[in-house]
Each structure stands twice: as C-alpha cells, then as structure tokens.
Design brief:
Strand order of the largest sheet: 1-2
Helix content: 55-70%
Structural class: mainly alpha
Number of strands: 2
Distance between the termini: 59 Å
Largest sheet: 2 strands, antiparallel
Length: 109
C-alpha cells in the first residue's frame, strides 16, 4: 500500500489536530471546577495583567498558571497569533489579542 499523496497527508494531519483539540476541550469540560471562573473571564484577566509589556518565558508561564492555564498553552497562543515572540526573546500580546480585549471591555449597545 502506497502512502497517501502529500495533499491528503495535510488534510489528515489537519483532521487529527481538530480531533486533538476536541479531546482537549472535552477534558477541560469534564475536569472544570464549578467554583473557578469561566475560561473567557480568565482570558480577559490574563490579557489585562499582561498589558503591553514583554514577558520572559518563565514570567509568561507563571502568568498562565496564575490564571488557571497550563504554561504549555502559550505555544498554542503563539500559533494562533495571540502572542508573539520578538527578537528580544520576550513574549508580547499581538494586535489580535489587544483587539479582542478591547472588544470585551466595550459594553454592548
């Protein structure tokens, strides 16, 4: 049996990533502590505390932990264009993060 062509491999890899993300979301839902604030409010708190300053890897990990997230989540945030690692080695919020945060702080009409 020949391996699938590259285009099919890319589609298979993308499908596996979606399945993996679904399992992660399911695990989060099952293990969620009902006394813990919802993830969206923790996102807001994390981004607000981060602000416009650059954080070292250790500082970013500590901030993620403090807001109830795994430090490894930062890698996903970078891939999702929520964080960027600049030439100085520090992690910064992207325009996408700052825009989302501003939208959350704007009251609905």
């Amino acid at each position: 049996m020949e391996p699938p062509p590259w285009s099919q491999r890319d589609e298979i890899a993308a499908a596996l990533r979606q399945i993996s993300a679904g399992f992660a979301a399911l695990a989060d839902a099952i293990s969620a502590d009902p006394t813990e604030p919802p993830a969206e409010s923790r996102y807001r708190s994390l981004l607000t505390e981060w602000g416009d300053r650059g954080l070292t890897r250790a500082e970013a990990s500590a901030l993620f932990r403090r807001h109830g997230f795994s430090p490894q989540a930062a890698g996903g945030w970078v891939r999702g264009d929520w964080l960027e690692i600049r030439d100085d080695g520090r992690r910064y919020l992207t325009g996408r993060s700052l825009h989302w945060l501003a939208e959350q702080e704007t009251p609905d009409d």
